[in-house]
Amino acid sequence: MHIQSIPMWVGSSNNYAYLVTDEASKDAVIIDPANPPEVTPVLKDATSSGKINLTAVINTHQTAIGIMLLSEFKDLKLPVIGGKDCESVTRTPKHEETFQIGQKISVTALHTPCHTQDSICWLMVDGDEKVVFTGDTLFIGGCGRFFEGTPAEMHTALNTTLAGLSDDTKVYPGHEYTKQNVKFLTTVLQTEPVKKLQSFAENNEQTQGKFTIADEKVRYPALELFSRYFSGTGLTFDQEYNAFMRVDDPTIQKATGKTDPVEVMAKLREMKNKM
Fold first, then answer.
1. For residue 67, what pLDDT is reported?
2. Which of 109, 173, 110 lies closest to 141 in space, CA to CA?
3. pTM of the full predicted structure?
């Protein structure tokens, strides 16, 4: 599996689109191509050079598709796979329904309603490699706003659906918000893992694919932060720094003044919104 990140609106909303290719067949999908002027040239170069066979558009939520992109590739008659409210959607897989990209990539739809009610995270597995594209549900060190959902829904999305994934699943979010998220984390969680995440974000413009589900939520002693980063396999140290995935933590509960997990989630979001 080859993943190419395509930054969009850098310096403002800092979105990511992702081009995912099955290397065995060259079949590829584009995920969340929200800004066609920045995405289309990349796709045209890859398709015209024979590097990929573009087979579908996949969206994590309704605001992530760029309709202009479909017109640019109308001859391919690309299916649009995403939530029921995505514009031009042609297929909405059920929760935990699977399908293939090319020969080797297995895709599983994980419904995570809250940011929008049609939000879907996409788990992709190729052999031992596991990644999840989380859109505006899970960010590195944070989560999306509850535009169409409730704290209970985000609690389920983060702490049941995504927390249940294999610990070594790498996270590819829809935005580069790590610096902003760390700024908030330092107000509720003054720990060494948070400090190290802050240092990493300050020294790296992009953090997508560098952290895993375990890094966000695992609850046992930390290992050295950069122990595997320089090997090129991603940061799979045993850390915990995402406050939204630590709603049972006494430190987070004290910071919010709440003990019920859903109430902690609600208060964290309220506090983050005010920053």
1. 62
2. 173
3. 0.91
CA gap 222, 202 in Å, rounded: 21
Identify the CA nearest to 28 among candidates 47, 12, 6, 15.
Answer: 47
| Phi then psi dihedrals of residue 126, to 5 deg | -135, 100
Rounded to whole angstroms, the Cα distance separating 199 from 155 reads 28
Instruction: List CB contacts of 153: < 8 A, sequence separation 6 or more.
Output: 113, 114, 146
What is the biggest distance separating any 2 CA atoms in the chain, rounded to whole angstroms?
57
User: From CA 23, how far away is CA 209, in angstroms rounded?
Assistant: 18
Q: What is the mean pLDDT of the chain?
A: 89
pLDDT tens column, 22-81: 999 999 999 999 998 999 999 999 999 999 999 999 999 986 566 667 777 777 889 999
* Tokens matching residue 77: 């008659």
Distance between CA atoms of residues 108 and 125, nearest Å: 9
